[in-house]
Amino acid sequence: MSAKIPVIEMFGPTIQGEGAVIGVKTMFVRTYGCDFRCSWCDSAFTWDGSSKDKRVMMDAEEIMSGLTELGGDRFDCVTISGGNPALIGEGLSELIDLLHERGIKAAIETQGSRWQDWFLKVDALTISPKPPSSGMSTDWEVLDSIMERVRTSGKGAHSLKVVVFDDEDYKYAAQVHHRYPDIPFFLQPGNDNVTEEGDISARLLSKLEWLFDKVIADPDMNAARVLPQLHALIWHNKRGK
Ligand SMILES: C[S@@+](CC[C@H](N)C(=O)[O-])C[C@H]1O[C@@H](n2cnc3c(N)ncnc32)[C@H](O)[C@@H]1O
Ligand SMILES: Nc1nc2[nH]cc(C(=O)O)c2c(=O)[nH]1
Ligand code: SF4
Ligand SMILES: [Mg+2]
């Protein structure tokens, strides 16, 4: 029980700002490294080399101690994001088991490019395939297989979340929703300036209104849910929130 995980930051307790578990109080563990390079990534420091010296290799017990030091007894959920946590096998499997032993739920943010067996024991698995504006392409065979395995064997809840910047992304989102009609589906407006300082809420809200209007007018989106990045409305582009 000591596989190491590359960790770039831990923070919290904070409020989950996105998707199916929005509003839940949670700690965050952010892993280092991503197999994607999204043009608008709000966490590019996990892969662009700018923070590589801050990456720490930690095992599950060390992460648990770090989280307890930060959050005391003020949390019962830990969200593991990145980067792509699905690049990591044994270490995260052990961390999820340890969280469960302590009665803590595990939530995951990943893009659906890689499978890990530990997906099946995650309490809230968010799969976020990337639309055209990211510059990335979707391997539909891999995504199909992930969605099928979590749908048939997953112990926890799972959902899809697509970030939308423009009309082309919206079409892509509709394609994802249509392909997996039984999976809870979330749309999230993109933040098109992740380095702007100060209050960005007005910009984000106008993007949200644009997306609301599209969904309201579209019979193919009757079952979709549209949510902002709640934390970005409150804490803007601040890191560790
Ligand atoms: C930073 S990613 C890390 C987890 C994983 N790599 C992924 O992309 O799902 C976490 C979430 O933030 C979203 N995200 C990243 N940059 C964003 C932006 N500029 N605006 C809105 N959402 C963004 C991603 O689409 C993903 O749903
Ligand atoms: N508060 C808060 N909620 C989040 N939901 C997903 C996040 C992520 O970066 O994966 C995130 C984040 O960074 N902060
Ligand atoms: S997949 Fe996630 S972490 Fe990786 S570049 Fe895209 S948004 Fe960033
Ligand atoms: Mg974030």
Automatic annotation (TrEMBL):
<dbReference type="InterPro" id="IPR024924">
    <property type="entry name" value="7-CO-7-deazaguanine_synth-like"/>
</dbReference>
<feature type="binding site">
    <location>
        <position position="83"/>
    </location>
    <ligand>
        <name>S-adenosyl-L-methionine</name>
    </ligand>
</feature>
<protein>
    <recommendedName>
        <fullName>7-carboxy-7-deazaguanine synthase</fullName>
        <ecNumber>4.3.99.3</ecNumber>
    </recommendedName>
</protein>
<dbReference type="Pfam" id="PF04055">
    <property type="entry name" value="Radical_SAM"/>
</dbReference>
<dbReference type="GO" id="GO:0000287">
    <property type="term" value="F:magnesium ion binding"/>
</dbReference>
<dbReference type="GO" id="GO:0008616">
    <property type="term" value="P:tRNA queuosine(34) biosynthetic process"/>
</dbReference>
<feature type="binding site">
    <location>
        <position position="81"/>
    </location>
    <ligand>
        <name>substrate</name>
    </ligand>
</feature>
<keyword id="KW-0671">Queuosine biosynthesis</keyword>
<comment type="function">
    <text>Catalyzes the complex heterocyclic radical-mediated conversion of 6-carboxy-5,6,7,8-tetrahydropterin (CPH4) to 7-carboxy-7-deazaguanine (CDG), a step common to the biosynthetic pathways of all 7-deazapurine-containing compounds.</text>
</comment>
<feature type="binding site">
    <location>
        <position position="30"/>
    </location>
    <ligand>
        <name>substrate</name>
    </ligand>
</feature>
<keyword id="KW-0460">Magnesium</keyword>
<keyword id="KW-0408">Iron</keyword>
<feature type="binding site">
    <location>
        <begin position="15"/>
        <end position="17"/>
    </location>
    <ligand>
        <name>substrate</name>
    </ligand>
</feature>
<dbReference type="GO" id="GO:0016840">
    <property type="term" value="F:carbon-nitrogen lyase activity"/>
</dbReference>
<dbReference type="InterPro" id="IPR013785">
    <property type="entry name" value="Aldolase_TIM"/>
</dbReference>
<keyword id="KW-0004">4Fe-4S</keyword>
<keyword id="KW-0479">Metal-binding</keyword>
<feature type="domain" description="Radical SAM core">
    <location>
        <begin position="21"/>
        <end position="237"/>
    </location>
</feature>
<dbReference type="InterPro" id="IPR007197">
    <property type="entry name" value="rSAM"/>
</dbReference>
<comment type="similarity">
    <text>Belongs to the radical SAM superfamily. 7-carboxy-7-deazaguanine synthase family.</text>
</comment>
<feature type="binding site">
    <location>
        <position position="43"/>
    </location>
    <ligand>
        <name>Mg(2+)</name>
    </ligand>
</feature>
<feature type="binding site">
    <location>
        <position position="38"/>
    </location>
    <ligand>
        <name>[4Fe-4S] cluster</name>
    </ligand>
</feature>
<dbReference type="InterPro" id="IPR017742">
    <property type="entry name" value="Deazaguanine_synth"/>
</dbReference>
<feature type="binding site">
    <location>
        <position position="41"/>
    </location>
    <ligand>
        <name>[4Fe-4S] cluster</name>
    </ligand>
</feature>
<feature type="binding site">
    <location>
        <begin position="40"/>
        <end position="42"/>
    </location>
    <ligand>
        <name>S-adenosyl-L-methionine</name>
    </ligand>
</feature>
<keyword id="KW-0411">Iron-sulfur</keyword>
<comment type="pathway">
    <text>Purine metabolism; 7-cyano-7-deazaguanine biosynthesis.</text>
</comment>
<keyword id="KW-0949">S-adenosyl-L-methionine</keyword>
<comment type="subunit">
    <text>Homodimer.</text>
</comment>
<feature type="binding site">
    <location>
        <position position="34"/>
    </location>
    <ligand>
        <name>[4Fe-4S] cluster</name>
    </ligand>
</feature>
<feature type="binding site">
    <location>
        <begin position="128"/>
        <end position="130"/>
    </location>
    <ligand>
        <name>S-adenosyl-L-methionine</name>
    </ligand>
</feature>
<dbReference type="GO" id="GO:0051539">
    <property type="term" value="F:4 iron, 4 sulfur cluster binding"/>
</dbReference>
<keyword id="KW-0456">Lyase</keyword>
<dbReference type="InterPro" id="IPR058240">
    <property type="entry name" value="rSAM_sf"/>
</dbReference>
<dbReference type="GO" id="GO:1904047">
    <property type="term" value="F:S-adenosyl-L-methionine binding"/>
</dbReference>
